[in-house]
Amino acid sequence: MTATTYSGFGDKALPFLKALGFHQNREWFHDNKDIFEDHLNEPRGRLIDDLASRLAESGLPLTCARKTSTFRINRDVRFAKEKHPYNTHVSAVVTRSGTKKDQGLLYFHIAPSDSFLSVGFYAMEPDELRAFREAIVARKAEFDAALKPLLDLGFVFDQDNALKRTPRGFEDVTDAEIVALLRLRHLTLSRKFTSDRLKGTALLEDLIELAAAAQPFLSFGWRVIDPVRAARDECTR
19: domain CATH number? Predict the structure, then answer.
């Protein structure tokens, strides 16, 4: 097995992010950049390196890399109402390609009061989301079986921006559980974690456990959306 270099985030990681929320200016950030690098950015990089190695060893079809999987601490404020220049969290994704644009992901988010793990399909194209909804209706038992390992770990569906009405084309669906799923804008599930998981290798082990448990659900989704993407790409050639 590959030697582990990740040993947890620094003890100043969460205090730095909390302070950054009060000091949203470049001068403060640059004066304290060493703390960001030593307690947050470099540990995140080591976590990603070790996670990629462990996933490869296990044969799971997911990967990550420092350059392509991490989100910047600097915010893109060009079209944002809030103009503060820095995020007050650090995060990264794990996908089949190791890039942020790939569908079917694991995600970790570290913040002073809202750290969580997520898994699933976020911001799908309309044709992908419709195909996913159709698959849920047509193969509900298979979908439920694919979800069970994640539900057993305490993950629940994200309700952010869920529709108040059943989407067009599914008005005949009457099963309340299916209707609730059809109204979701994103097919993602999340679970919060406490700050003690940032110590040692706990978060690394949590992500490996999640990657294994997520495989049935991710595979279900990939089988649905990959043909849709392929057909769309063929039409644009």
Answer: 3.30.930
